[in-house]
Amino acid sequence: MQNFLNSINSVVWGAPMLLFFIFTALRFSFKSRFFQFRGVATIFKNTFGKMLRVDKTGEISQFSAFCSVLGACIGTGNIVGVATAIYSGGAGTVFWMLLSALLSTMTAYAENYLGARNIIRQSNKIIKGAYAYIQKATASKFVPLIYALFSLMSALGMGNLTQSNSLADSLKNSFNIPPIVTGLVCAALCGVVITGGVKRIARVQTIVVPIMTIFYLVLSTAVLIKYKSNILPCLSLILKEAFSIKAFSGFGMYKAVRYGISRGVFSNEAGLGSSTILHSETDNSDGEVQGMWAMTEVFIDTIFMCSLTAIVILISTDYNQNGLFGAELSTTAYGTIGEIGKKGVGILTAIFAFSSLASCSFYGEKSFEYLWGKKHLTLYKAFYIIAVFMGCVSSPKVIWTIADICNGLMAIPNLFSINCLHKEVTYP
Hints:
Blueprint: H1 2-12, H2 15-31, H3 35-38, H4 40-46, H5 62-73, H6 80-89, H7 92-117, E1 120-121, E2 126-127, H8 130-138, H9 142-175, H10 179-194, H11 197-226, H12 231-242, H13 253-268, H14 275-279, H15 287-316, H16 327-334, H17 339-372, H18 377-392, H19 396-420
Antiparallel strand pairs: 1-2
Helix pairs in contact: 1-19, 2-7, 2-19, 5-11, 5-15, 5-17, 6-13, 7-8, 7-12, 7-13, 7-15, 8-9, 8-19, 9-10, 9-17, 9-18, 9-19, 10-17, 10-18, 11-15, 11-17, 13-19, 15-16, 16-17, 17-18
């Protein structure tokens, strides 16, 4: 089974897909005259400078959308996803993950700009976000249906199975809690949150996201202080392995690029169009503002937090010889500062994972609604809750591979559409 999935994954995330992501990111970066660098002050002014603005007409406030998208992004991808990237592609993945994220901030800007500016009103429903601009770009109602199907698969794969599996794995490693117990409790809690709709999800995220981010920074800083003498050699290793030309053994350059970009996408979702689903629910339809919020999310999630996790792992563990994968590798790294680190990262991973479970359930819900309407949403939510339990008791490597495949399939129609509509995107 694993070999079969690996074969599919190697096709989906082959050179054409990597080039598609890179081309799109470069296109919008050049078109905007690298707004991600020249517009830092403007971005800060229009995001954090206005984040406490009161909700007026939308389903949720801008700050709630920001926390909800971050809740989906700052999941286990920041801890376990980074560890799997390093395990699979070596230290060089960190460089490519960082570079792709810097460029992909403009991809995130473009898709959220288009998501805010394109709304299709039909007699019985309003189509917003990625569904609207994909329909416009392709002049087809069939392609958005394919995107919605891939989006639903991604919500169940990336947003559900990987998160719940990492949650159970971390609690087992840190507290020796059986995955079946974690699955039952997590499924019950998830049910309480997601049955309350987007507003309840947003309320939970506005509390959870700031607290878990501060806790994460405290733990990571403690490891950095303990191994501060290893930081410079670590940075040197990242650059060295990023441009390695080893051919068929070890961690080659292609492998580093492939896992760096795919795990970066897993973490920040730039290029998938998923963040447009939540941003389109806010009270602000200004495309430029929504785009700048999306850029901020990518920066915090990948450029800052994922890079920090990677350095923690590289300076504190012998990552390529201990045979550890995913949550085990992260737990080992943070456990080097003592029991508080081991227990702390277990709790942190669990909170990160649950946060993503909640937000990604809404992505799946909107995809399900687009495909089959609101009539059977209860069925979707029940299935999502069952999938939480299944993810907790399944094999981690199989689940991560499935998530990669779902992300790649979801990205194809989205990247195609934003490239078709690139002339519509304007910049501050």
